[in-house]
Amino acid sequence: MQFLEMPAEERLNCFFELMSCGGEHHLWTYDTDGNLLSTDARDMALHKMFAASGLLEYLVDYCKEHHDLIVLSIAQGLLWCAAFETDSDEHVTKIYVYGPVATQDLSYETIGTITNNSDVTESWRPKFRRILRRIPVVMTSVLFQHAIMFNYCITGKKITVPDIVFYSSKKADTTPEAPSRNRIQTYMAEQELLRMVREGNLFYKKALERASSVSTGVGSGDRNAMRHAMISQIVFISLCTRAAIEGGLSPEVAYSKGDAYINDVLQCTSVTDTVHIGHSMYADFIETVHNRKNKQLYSPPVQSCCDYIDTHLESQIDLETLARRVGYSEYYLSRKFKTETGKSLNEYIRTARIDRAKILLATTEMSIQSISDRLCFGNRSFFADTFRKTVGMPPAEYRKKHLKL
Question: Is 191 contained in some domain?
Answer without folding.
Answer: no
